[in-house]
Amino acid sequence: MKPEMKFVGRMRALFGAPDADANAVIDEYTNVLAGQSEATLDRAADTLARTHKFRNWPTVAECLDAVAAAKRSANVAAMGLERIDDVEGWYSERISRIRIATNERQIDGELRQIEPYDMARWIAPERLRNARFEAEARRKELLTATSADLARRQMGESAK
C-alpha cells in the first residue's frame, strides 16, 4: 500500500469519511502527499491525531504542516540534537556568551552549538547569520583590546 493511502486510511479511522465527495477529497489528499515516506506520514498522522481538535478532516494545509514538522523532527533526531523548548531564550544565551567571550575558542564554541540547529532548520536562517555577525564583532573587539594592551606594554617597557 502506498504511504499516502495508508495516511488517508488513518484519517478515515480518526475523523470518519470526508464531508464532501469522498473520492475527490481522497484523490486531492493523496496527490498532495505523494512522494512522502511512510515514516514521515506516520509521524504526521500521529501529530494530527494528537492536535486536530475537530471531528472533521484536517485541511490539506494542516496535513502539509504536520508533514513538515515530522521532517524537521526526523532531521533533529538524526543529527542527535536535543529538543529546545525555549528557542528564544537558548539563542539569546548563545549571543550573550559570544558578546562576553574572552577568547576565540569561546566564540567558536557558541557558534558550534548554533550551527547544527540551523542545519536541521530548527532555527530561522537569519539567526546563524546574526550569530556570525556578533562573533565577528567580538573578534574585532578582542583584537583591538589585544593591540592596545600590547602597545601600552611596549610604551611602558620603552620608558624604563
Structural write-up:
It is rod-shaped and about 85 Å long. Helix 5 runs parallel beside helix 7. The protein is mostly helical and 160 residues long. The N and C termini lie far apart (87 Å).
How large a portion of the residues is in β-strands, by DSSP E?
under 5%
Largest sheet: none
Q: Would you report the number of β strands?
A: 0
Radius of gyration: 25 Å
Outline: rod-shaped
- Report how far apart the termini are: 87 Å
Number of helices: 7
Class based on secondary structure composition and strand pairing: mainly alpha
Order of helices and strands: HHHHHHH
- What level of helicity do the residues show? over 70%
Average pLDDT figure: 86
In the predicted model, the low-confidence regions spanning at least 5 consecutive residues are none
